[in-house]
């Protein structure tokens, strides 16, 4: 069964990503929340760091991952996060970054 985990942290955007995406400016540091679909029910920080590197992040400081409670996304103010949760299922991951 697939479980979506949330990983929060901060990192610097290197500009070298494995794919095109709406990324931050090169060299800037940002906080983020990574939504990562995993095949198991245990947090895997190494997998999360590898996924963040695919997004182009380096100098990664990562908190422990935790599974998201899908029901918590039903509130109207959680719409953006619901889209990222769904994106993790279709694309394996999704990220929210902010200054």
Note the main attributes of this structure.
99 residues, alpha+beta, 5-stranded antiparallel β-sheet, 5 strands
* Mean pLDDT across residues: 93
Distance between the termini: 34 Å
Number of helices: 2
Q: Give the SSE string.
A: EEHEEHE
Oligomer: single chain
* Estimated radius of gyration: 13 Å
Helix- and strand-based class? alpha+beta
Low-confidence stretches: none
- Count of individual beta strands: 5
Q: So what's the overall shape?
A: globular
Outline the biggest β-sheet: 5 strands, antiparallel
Strand content: 35-45%
The portion of residues assigned to helices is 10-25%
**Overall tally of structural domains:** 1
Protein architecture, described:
The chain has 99 residues and is of the alpha+beta class. It has one domain. Helices cover 24% and strands 35% of the residues. The chain contains two helices and five strands; from the N terminus they run ββαββαβ. It has helices at 45-55, 79-91, and strands spanning 3-13, 29-38, 57-62, 66-67, 93-98. Strands 1, 2, 3, 4 and 5 form a five-stranded antiparallel beta sheet that branches. The longest helix has 13 residues, at 79-91. The mean pLDDT is 93.
Write a brief caption for the model.
The protein is of the alpha+beta class and 99 residues long. It contains 2 helices and 5 strands.
List the helices and strands and how they pair.
Blueprint: E1 3-13, E2 29-38, H1 45-55, E3 57-62, E4 66-67, H2 79-91, E5 93-98
Antiparallel strand pairs: 1-2, 1-3, 1-4, 2-5
């Amino acid at each position: 069964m697939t479980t979506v985990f949330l990983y929060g942290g901060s990192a610097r955007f290197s500009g070298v990503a494995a794919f095109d995406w709406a990324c931050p400016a090169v060299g800037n540091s940002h906080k983020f929340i990574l939504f990562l679909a995993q095949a198991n029910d245990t947090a895997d920080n190494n997998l999360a760091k590898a996924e963040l590197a695919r997004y182009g992040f380096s100098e990664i400081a990562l908190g422990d991952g935790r599974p998201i409670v899908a029901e918590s996304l039903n509130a109207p103010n959680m719409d953006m996060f619901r889209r990222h949760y769904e994106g993790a299922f279709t694309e394996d991951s999704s990220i929210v970054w902010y200054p």
